[in-house]
Amino acid sequence: MASAVLDACPEEQKNQGNFLDAPRLEKGVTRFWLIRHALVEQNARAMMYGTMDVPLCPESLVAQQPMYEALARRLPSDALWFVTPLSRTQRTAQAIQNAGYGERPLTVEPGFLEQELGEWQGLPHAEFPKKLEHEPHYFWPLSGEERPPGGENMVDVCQRVGHTLSTLAAHHAKRDMVVVSHGGAIRAALAHALKIDADTALHFSIQNLSLTILECHDGVWRVVTANELPGI
């Protein structure tokens, strides 16, 4: 019945003024579909791997096939696709395309990389507390201000990701863009959209294969969804 009402009243689906919460996403909007890469293999999960190029978990690739299929159905068919230089994002993008979306070119964009942990990359989680200069975040081993030697803090990541989003929004206005990225970078994207600080952004849960949708309207950002789990 609801579908029949929508079909009978197409004008009601159009945005009125600045009201954007229509039943369907409006076409011709600069929109980013941000997906966190799939689960990495077990040994990598025991450490802080940051920008290390660790492989995906092969068992999860099989077990989570329904999630790839749900993402393939959910994503816009005419989107531009971006990945990071790390194989886990590229492999995830390929798995989504192979699950029914169809093959599309993948553009490598380093601006969406995970937080660079410098000398601390590869350390077991238990070794972090004794190295910190600041209190750890409640939901992350590092605070937003903590910068590992030779690495980035989350403030740096927010600035990098924000610049990348603004640049792509200007270059590909009114296009849909699928970005397969990392948990830290997607939190940074939310920080940019909402104009919140790095520590506040770390309160977001961004799970593997989750979808976060951001829109840019004349330089003003809007969050459509965050940490949406496909097929659940």
TrEMBL record:
GO cellular component terms given for this protein: cytoplasm
One GO molecular-function entry: phosphatase activity
Gene that encodes the chain: bluF
SUPFAM superfamilies, per the entry: Phosphoglycerate mutase-like
Name assigned to this protein: Alpha-ribazole-5'-phosphate phosphatase
Entries under Pfam families matching the protein: His_Phos_1 (PF00300)
PANTHER family for the chain: BROAD-SPECIFICITY PHOSPHATASE YOR283W-RELATED (PTHR48100), HISTIDINE PHOSPHATASE FAMILY PROTEIN-RELATED (PTHR48100:SF1)
Protein's organism: Acetobacter aceti NBRC 14818
